[in-house]
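Hi R.,

Here's the chain you asked about this morning:
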Amino acid sequence: MIKRNFLIAALGAVTLLAANAPAAVLDLRTTNTGTINGAIFTTDFRQPTGTGVFNPFLSMQNSPMQQGYNSNTGNFDTKREPQWNHEIRLSDLRITNFGGVNYFGFVVDINEPNSPNQSMISLDALRIWTSPTTQYSLLTDANGFFNGPLGQLRYDLGNNSVLYDDRNSGSGQSDIQFYIPVEFFAGAQSTDYVYMYQRWGGADSSQGGFEETAIAQGIVSTPELSSFFPIIGLMVAVLSTQILRRRRAAQLTA
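And the predicted structure, written out as tokens:
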């Protein structure tokens, strides 16, 4: 709860980046939480990862730039299909609630070299679609970046980017979590496929191992401890009253 409350407070202190605003950079090297186009990006958590601990649905690797989306057949720089790169459905996602708002959460394990000149990396594109049928496309723009449709677009990072320094983590340590509002998926069916495209290495190049993305486990909202005390007090009072009544009844029949 402390982590969760801290994250909510931090969000209130970070300037929100609107979709029509000029390209912006969220530097997670200097702040641990921020938002871009309604999505929360944070490093304010700890969750063991590595492919033996969590199950990525999107895996990619290349240098100095890498891109791809989750698909059983693979594309661009994705790796290890279909075990660690494959389609997922909306029903696979888990809901997390922050400040009364529901989000779908994802966790990224970044594997960059642990050295000052190579540990930094940038996320330069993030798009999410839903589709009632499987999708596949290799369409690119003039720069060679994927720009094909994969269904109904639900989220787009736009021209913004997220910077991260992996020097203190490495493989086996989760690095970034991001949360997309559930309301962005309005009208989608639970059986719809969810496709996520990422591009890394534009502002800071990718130079290490796999970048892996998995579904974050939902956080169940629980009351603060102080809210339990009135409930406990009421239970004690009711129980005490019942005990006294039983004792008095026993005395009268004795």
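The chain has two helices and 14 strands.

Let me know if you need anything else.
M.
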